Amino acid sequence: MLDRLLAGVFGLALWLVFLVTLVSGLVPVLKKAEFDSLCSDAFSAMEVRGELSPDDVLALSSTLESRGFRQVLVRSDASVPYGQPQWLVVEAVLDVPLSFRAFQPDRRILPLSYRRMRLSRRILNE
């Protein structure tokens, strides 16, 4: 009876270590997907209007910072005539837990970058 209890506790502890490691490994992937999604939304808005206004840049920066990204740098073309290339470059830094060690996770700095170019085009709703 005692041997089953010890084996169960050991198995549960091993399962918990595996689960924590798996979750800590998924954090960078999920945060990168979130970063790309927010930048893609801003790029789509920039494509429709032909520019990314200073208010849009500020909104994107504050949204990224509120989600845990640091040192956010947003660069884009001011106003682009239709038919010319449009650029959006967003760079940020993310602190991610690398592994867990007695309630003190090791941290790793993960640089993130979003660089996209499209031709500016007029979208007509008829």
Give the structure's gist in a few sentences:
The protein has 126 residues and is an alpha+beta fold.
Name the shape in a single word: elongated
What percent of residues are in strands?
25-35%
Mean pLDDT, as a whole number? 83
Secondary structure class reads alpha+beta
Q: Uncertain segments of ≥5 residues (pLDDT<50)?
A: none
Order of helices and strands: HHEEE
Q: Which strand order do you get reading across the main beta sheet?
A: 1-2-3
Task: Describe this protein's structure.
- With 126 residues, the protein is an alpha+beta fold.
- It has one domain (28-119).
- The protein is built from two helices and three strands, in the order H-H-E-E-E.
- A three-stranded antiparallel beta sheet has the order 1-2-3, with helices on one face.
- Helix 1 runs antiparallel to helix 2 (54-66).
- The termini are far apart.
List keywords for this structure.
126 residues; alpha+beta; three-stranded antiparallel beta sheet; 2 helices; 3 strands; 48% helix; elongated
Question: How do the helices and strands line up, and which of them pair or pack?
Answer:
Elements lengths: L1 H48 L4 H13 L3 E7 L8 E15 L6 E14 L7
Antiparallel strand pairs: 1-2, 2-3
